[in-house]
């Protein structure tokens, strides 16, 4: 997406540093830098950000399409464990973590800088709040919202 946009002279919502826009907070228009292009809108938002459709629509061009990638949860957690070198943070192997109690894992994930990681990472990144994870009605509303908000889910 970055190459696609660069080759076509499109504008990007870019974080001031790293590849995260406000994470773990949901995206807010104040996280977008001042816009230099004449339209008043950005063309692409392709960096990590917690999905917030209304706020993203404020900074993206009218008619913007929303695309996301959904990953298998266990593989995603394994990937995060490796990428963030969580064996050093937790001081235990991934096998031990997967055999530990949820209370133990949640306690460790609540510490900074790990507070942007979680057991339900995809739902969190797509905007579901942790207190809603076990609320079946909230989860169903969330899924219906995502179904209407996204034009393509890979």
From TrEMBL:
Subcellular location: Golgi apparatus membrane
Species for this entry: Ornithodoros moubata
GO cellular component, one term: Golgi membrane
GO molecular function, one term: galactosylceramide sulfotransferase activity
Protein name in UniProt: Galactose-3-O-sulfotransferase
Topology versus the membrane: Single-pass type II membrane protein
Cross-referenced InterPro entries: Gal-3-0_sulfotransfrase, P-loop_NTPase
Database matches in Pfam families: Gal-3-0_sulfotr
Lineage: Eukaryota, Metazoa, Ecdysozoa, Arthropoda, Chelicerata
GO process annotations (BP): glycolipid biosynthetic process
Sorted UniProt keywords: Glycoprotein, Golgi apparatus, Membrane, Signal-anchor, Transferase, Transmembrane, Transmembrane helix
Main location (coarse class): Golgi
Recorded family membership: Belongs to the galactose-3-O-sulfotransferase family.
């Amino acid at each position: 997406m970055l190459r696609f946009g660069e080759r076509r002279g499109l504008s990007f919502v870019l974080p001031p540093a790293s590849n995260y826009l406000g994470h773990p907070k949901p995206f807010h228009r104040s996280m977008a830098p001042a816009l230099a292009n004449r339209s008043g809108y950005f063309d692409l938002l392709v960096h990590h950000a917690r999905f917030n459709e209304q706020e993203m629509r404020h900074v993206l061009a009218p008619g913007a399409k929303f695309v996301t990638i959904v990953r298998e949860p266990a593989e995603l957690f394994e990937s995060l464990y490796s990428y963030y070198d969580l064996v050093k943070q937790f001081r235990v192997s991934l096998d031990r973590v997967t055999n530990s109690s949820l209370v133990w894992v949640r306690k460790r994930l609540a510490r900074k800088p790990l507070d942007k990681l979680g057991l339900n990472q995809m739902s969190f990144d797509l905007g579901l709040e942790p207190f809603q994870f076990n609320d079946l009605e909230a989860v169903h509303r969330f899924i219906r919202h995502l179904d209407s908000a996204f034009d393509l889910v890979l």
